[in-house]
């Protein structure tokens, strides 16, 4: 009797493991039936925005590993997802929805955003769970982009974020990705911190914040770019100035692009750094356009046509191109590039509005995911890009 009960329990446990593995695979297969049927941009925009709103307060967890078998082991070990990854997923959705609100007086969206803020910050405007990595800065920046709230209410959280970033500054005067890796500079960090530093520095009259953002970008332009092609390596070693990882990692281009273009956007026209960043925008735009595929995507390795298209790269570079089109010298090429990116992203959108086929989370320098699925980060930038099409700020200069 006891042996039978043990056998039944064991079979039940095995069944649970199988279900945990099989259900996501089956769900993806089912969700991809009739993928890419959107033809009208307004209908597509409404669909992706509605889903992004649903995800804001129930953000899908993003896997750290690429395992698709015995996933329960990763869950038990705490290796399934990480809070730092969630920060930039949530930030992207917040950025997308804040762009939507610039053109829509939508109380439902505002209420969901307030609900999100109440889950992240206490009554004093401080983080409930203080981020310890620079990934958290992009979430702080996203909060600063919300026009319908009293931004200064969250100044304690912004001040903490600035201090946290300062704690990551290395001996070369630029910001490390992690405290225990101060000898390396990652391209991700540009996207994480530079828009926040410029926005925070301008709002609270702290020039050193803006200076640090510009120095971070300039240092990467000098040390982390492939000569003659101006695309970033995944990282570089500070003292020996050695490139690390892949030149042309798609999402690496995306991180550089959003850090650069959002920092440029935040600067007023007369600011001393505006023209400095504008030159970087023009140079990078021309470089990135040469790697865009005919169907509008950028691949996860942009330099290889044989590699898979990556929706996260395409969404972030599409956002960059749309904003870079405000610069007269490159306006037509950038706007054409942004439109091609949009058309591609519509073709890889599931029936429920989820933009599919984004590369999974990177494991280490040079160790890239081979899983391509939904990613809230991509969803947010698609929403952001589409709602900027109607924004009065995106005009030729």
TrEMBL record:
InterPro entries: 6-hairpin_glycosidase_sf, 6hp_glycosidase-like_sf, Glyco_hydro_88, PolySaccharide_Degr_Enz. GO terms for molecular function: hydrolase activity. It comes from Paenibacillus chondroitinus. The lineage of its organism: Bacteria, Bacillati, Bacillota, Bacilli, Bacillales. The chain crosses the membrane at residues 6-26. Gene3D superfamilies: 1.50.10.10. The keyword Transmembrane applies. This is Glycoside hydrolase family 88 protein. The keyword Membrane applies. It comes from the Bacteria. Keywords: Hydrolase, Membrane, Transmembrane, Transmembrane helix.
